[in-house]
Amino acid sequence: MRRAGELACGETLQESNGNLSSPGFPNGYPSYTHCIWRVSVTPGEKIILNFTTMDLYKSSLCWYDYIEVRDGYWRKSPLLAICGGEIRKNEGQIQSPNYPDDYRPMKECVWKITVSEGYHVGLTFQAFEIERHDNCAYDYLEVRDGNSDNSPVIGRFCGYDKPEDIRSTSNTLWMKFVSDGTVNKAGFAANFFKEEDECAKPDRGGCEQRCLNTLGSYQCACEPGYELGPDRRSCEDKDECSKDNGGCQQECVNTVGSYVCQCRNGFVLHENKHDCKEAECEQKIYSPSGLITSPNWPDKYPSRKECTWEISSTPGHRIKLAFSEFEIEQHQECAYDHLEVFDGETEKSPILGRLCGNKIPDPLVATGNKMFVRFVSDASVQRKGFQATHSTECGGRLKADPKPRELYSHAQFGDNNYPGQVDCEWLLVSERGSRLELSFQTFEVEEEADCGYDYVELFDGLDSTAVGLGRFCGSGPPEEIYSIGDAILIHFHTDDTINKKGFYVRYKSIKYPETTHTKK
Predict the structure, then answer these.
(1) Which residues pair with 208 in a beta bridge?
(2) pTM (2 decimals)?
(3) Fold assignment, 396-510
């Protein structure tokens, strides 16, 4: 294009008005022509360009011969005179024709957006004003998830409310703007960009529990009972009991990842799990320590009574039951009134003891973090009953399965720092032919150059004579740990000075072919 009467192909124009035409107009333009005109006027004024004649070779998406108009002085200024097109860029802006002024009637513009392979197309709207209609039958913007008019419809939009952010499922997005012959509005402006699903990566964006992908970014989230730590990636146990007693009528006990309401002796938890009602002799206990007594204690227990206690504690800690008072009808085989203690969560678990008589029994210790206690009285003799304290002991033998299990440094992990002067040993064992994987989710142990004060020490075998896998303190091992054999011994030692949060580790059995201890 050039000013009428001149042969120049492209120039800088500064007049307030004038005419432009392509080289050779009206007799046809030559081949392989590339002309650039720069038009500038007085600052504060706008430039209006009206086409009176247009006859260019027509090709799909103006692929061959075309005229391009940009809003600015340079080659990378925003395109103005384009209605649709095939866009192969990782970011940019799309506007309705003539935006921000009203779009023209009888327009149909189609954009096909393609970003780099392996990404999605993100679309956000900065402005939106298209003739309103319940079904968007007149003027509208249609967006499809793909590269053609046969792709699934994401939405057809009109009115004055900006659409929600849009994300394609592939690296292409198809858009069509249509206006009829009547009402015209300001139209729309939208930004597109390549969108990455960080949550689909192997490390899930570094999130410990849940990763939520958002347009242009992502955020970490936690399972119920946990809350995000200061780094906004790790999850920490939430103390629900610190606010309004967790909604519990009597006692609130914080557990790892949750909380439970408990009732004082003589009451049991209501079906709503928060209120208490008079005991019917069935209790579920989740606190690390507490007191259980026979019904009607310290008076004689009633006849024809059966009471049960299901005691649960933190994974990796054994439940201990110690008696301070004991008086139950004597019988050689405890066939009448008796107290039974089981090594597990039901009466089908292995039995630790069937007790009666007047002698205070020795303490009973479960092999895991579950214990079931049952008291039975018959119709005849009644005695004073019993009083016992349940508590926890760290350490023990734990079986590893392909499904991850959890182990905590101390029973009140999340509520209190670990205690002083502790020596705990856990023996983790997998099936023969399998190995063990350890992954520390939380590790805060007193820091010292040689880990001589508080530490966690790992051995690749059944006892401390096995090959050492490392002694750790501070922030702990940076990556997963793998055994060579089918057992790992964990030794946790603390002195009597500084106490920290402790550790929380997940362990499982695996078929692991390598012979190294750490993941490469």
Answers:
(1) none
(2) 0.48
(3) Jelly Rolls (2.60.120)
State the residue for tokens 């914080």: 254
CATH topology (fold) of 281-393: Jelly Rolls (2.60.120)
* Under 8 Å between Cβ of 185 and 131: yes
Please provide the DSSP assignment of 387-446 as one string: EEEEEEEE-EEEE--SS-EEEESSTTTTTSPPPSSEEEEEEEE--TT-EEEEEEEEEEB-
Residues, the chain:
520
As given in the structure block, the two tokens for residue 314 are: 């933190």
Report which DSSP code applies to 361: P
Q: Counting beta carbons within 10 angstroms of the beta carbon of residue 2, is it exposed (0 to 12), middle (13 to 18) or buried (19 or more)?
A: buried
Partners of 113 in beta bridges: 87, 173
Q: Regarding the domain with residue range 198-237, which homologous superfamily does it belong to in the CATH classification?
A: Laminin (2.10.25.10)
- At 329-388, the pLDDT tens digits run 999 899 999 999 999 999 999 999 999 999 999 999 998 899 999 999 988 888 999 999
Nearest to 360 by CA among 399, 387, 397: 387
The pLDDT tens digits of the residues spanning 178-215 come to: 998 888 899 999 999 998 888 888 888 889 888 988 88
Q: Which 3 state secondary structure label does DSSP give 205? A: helix
Give the whole-angstrom CA distance, residue 390 versus residue 363: 10
